[in-house]
Amino acid sequence: ASVRGRYFGARGAMMSGAAMITGYGGAWLVDRGRAAGDEASVYAGLLVLAVVSGGLGSVLLSRQPEPAPSKGVRYGWRDLLLLPARHQRFRAWVGAFMVWQIGLGVAAPFFIAYGLTELKLPLQTLALMDTISALTGLVAQPYWGRLADRLGHRRVLLICMALVVPLPWNWLLATPTRIWPLFFNAILSGGLWAGLSMTQTNRLMEQAPAEGRGAYFAAFSVATGLAYTAASLAAGALVSTIGLDPVTFAGMTFHPYQAFFLLSGILRLAALVLGGRAI
Q1: Model confidence, pTM
Q2: Separation CA 232–CA 104 (nearest Å)
Q3: Beta carbons within 8 Å of 164's beta carbon, 6+ residues apart
Q4: Can you tell me the mean pLDDT for 182-202?
Q5: pLDDT (mean) for 66-87
Q6: How much is the mean pLDDT over the chain?
Q7: 63 vs 44: CA distance, rounded Å
Q8: Domain count of the chain?
């Protein structure tokens, strides 16, 4: 446990490197395919590659050594489902991150769409931003790991969450002729999300009791995943209802997507303020 931060830092750095290469390479191929009038074939090829890679990864993961199961208390399915709900501290932890995931989900579907349609950015430029994020995450991961081992995962998690709160607001500053806020956002995003993801995982391990820990992990994933999905679906349905025409409110005119970027930061802040003690 004393070196867990450094381990996950190194692991995350390697994953960021792989994501950086494949993400930018895929976007480059899509842009080349669009120029040649065969964009659909490139997308199809990338999807096939993703399926094959996922299958290969599953096979390799299945070959990893598995520790012998604990000979402690055995739980039935019903008990495993109810354990997380009965744990007050864990319920508070999950609740805080459900609000956090709602804050992420309300804006997540619109960043790429806004960049392509309103900012008129080519896909390769958006992929370059993802590459920059992956690169900064690659560099930052080991430092976050060492810092977490010194200060504790909770402190580093709260720091990263606080700094991630205003990131979607950088999209409010961008225009077709001023995209530097998005590159600034990409640099910050990569470094901060690297620390946040790593410390969230380790903090989850600290929050979940040893007995029935798998049930706690599953409950956290399901609850936060459903919150994110519901927020994204609701945001998409609302945009479909109100349309994409500019909206004027209080003398200001803005694109509907921008309202969700603003709301995303507000909800992230609410999760941090209201759930900070539970985190």
Answers
A1: 0.80
A2: 8
A3: 189, 192, 193, 196, 268
A4: 93
A5: 71
A6: 87
A7: 29
A8: 1
Taking phi first (over 0 means left), then psi (-120 to 50 degrees means alpha), and beta for anything else, what does residue 252 get?
beta
**119: helix, strand or coil:** coil
- Tally of CB atoms within 10 A around 112: 14
pLDDT (0 to 100) of residue 74 = 64
Contact criterion met (CB below 8 Å) for 199 and 144: yes
Rounded mean pLDDT of 47-70? 83
H/E/C letters for each residue in 137-201? HHHHHHHHHHHHHHHCHHHHHHHHHHHHCCHHHHHHHCECCECHHHHHHHHHHHHHHHHHHHHHH
| Structural domain harbouring 247 | 4-275
Helix or strand run (H / E) with residue 232? helix 213-242
Domain CATH number, residue 13: 1.20.1250.20
Cβ atoms of residues 232 and 241 within 8 Å: no
CB 263 within 8 A of CB 104: no
71 pLDDT more than 70: no
The percent of residues above 90 in pLDDT, for the chain, comes to 44
Quick one: how many helices (H) and strands (E) in the chain? 11, 2
Judged on CB neighbours under 10 Å (0-12, 13-18, 19+), 210 is: exposed
pLDDT-derived band of residue 65, with 50, 70 and 90 as boundaries? confident
CA distances from 80 to 24, 216, 219, 227 (A): 42, 8, 10, 21
| Among 171, 134, 186, 182, residue whose Cα is nearest residue 23 | 134
Residue 1 pLDDT more than 60? Answer: no
